[in-house]
Rab-GAP TBC domain-containing protein
Amino acid sequence: CIQHVYGAQHPPFDPLLHANLIKAGNKPPSTSTPGKPKKATTFQEFESITSDAWDVGDDDDELLAMAAQNLNIEVVMETANKVIENHSKLQERRQQQQQLDEVFEPEEKEEEEGSERLPHSDSRLVKSHSEAPIGSPKEMIGERAALQRQQSLPHRPVIPLVARMADQNTSGTPAMTEREAFRLDKFRQLLAGPNTDLEELRKLSWSGIPRQVRPITWKLLSGYLPANAERRASTLQRKRQEYFGFIEQYYDSRNDEHHQDTYRQIHIDIPRMSPERLVLQPKVTEIFERILFIWAIRHPASGYVQGINDLVTPFFVVYVFEYIEEEVENFDVSSLQEEVLRNIEADSFWCMSKLLDGIQDNYTFAQPGIQRKVKALEELVSRIDETVHRHMQHYEVEYLQFAFRWMNNLLMRELPLRCTIRLWDTYQAEPEGFSHFHLYVCAAFLVRWRKEILEEKDFQGLMILLQNLPTMHWGNEEVSVLLAEAYRLKFAFADAPNHYKR
């Protein structure tokens, strides 16, 4: 029968596993404490002057091209630090520019209102964006100039749920810079061969995958599709038929007595997911229910665990993008052809299954994988930033109280979906990205909020901050800085205990 269904925000209580993680006598925090982090406004101001910093140079490519190679640690550290330092310098320049721009604010506000009325391209159904042509160099230069004019304004338009102009690799059809067009061409050349070099594809993907080729690239990097191009069509056909064979065999059993609790919990959890405008579409809800129930039936050692439901969304959204041009949150999924929807559903199921195969001990009874990772995070942060570590100890904040969700949901509740998709580009390119490298990303993510953490002087304030970190306006550049720092930490702490790598 299907086994335990746990909470997504807190682990199941097991005295033996918790003995070394939770101090006796500590009171658990209230997870329903209302309120927003105190520094959200300050961060929004910071974000507004650092957007699109990563379009200036190729420093991220220098770092990320080295990701799969064994390198001298001094070289790695120097390059990673260079990425972060470059970002900081650009931030300072933008702050100075903003001060100058304030003199002309009324005039530029008018210009901005005009920029928000830029015409959108006609929405239409396409076979695949991997076959879409790239604009001519003259067109791209003109589009880039228009984009730069818009980005120079002191105030930004509202950022869409899935993407903004700066995040062209995630959603929408914004202007493409020459550099982005060059990277897209490199991907297409690599994917066009009879046998894709997966190692080269990983190196290229580490710094982000263009939206147009993300579906095929994710399928290759996850191991769902073979490197041999001639075998891909038959593999897709076979795996899609196999999945719908599971539907015919098992899905009617969702109403059986020993499966009712599992299906009921899935049915309750899906409407709580984001983006709401997507998952609340009846067709999408049905697809997610089938994917999660079939996965639970086929993995009785864990069954369905809250948190697994979130892991479907990035795959589903990316594979929908293969067939549409508009932003997914405003798209009626039911308007797609039935065969297309079946393909998206099956592909999402298999790729989610591939991901979970590598972290299944996160979801078995008592979730020992997560508890080990939380303990490893605590030890890692104590070495990276002892001041932050001791500050949380002083106010009796246990890592398990906030980082359990970071591990259980792979930071999906902490980051916008556009950032999760960009993060997963690197996770799929990095060896053991979802298990081992995620630990260093979580450590870098925690230390990223060092100033805000140290300004909080009580348990409640710290918990409100850590459970509501102000990342709403994050985009590709913030994720790239986070990944660069995580990559630096990975090499700096190469001598870490073995349990860091489990």
Summary: The longest helix spans residues 73-101. The radius of gyration is 23 Å. Confidence is low (pLDDT under 50) at residues 6-60, 62-71, 103-166, 168-172. The CA atoms of residues 64 and 220 lie 19 Å apart.
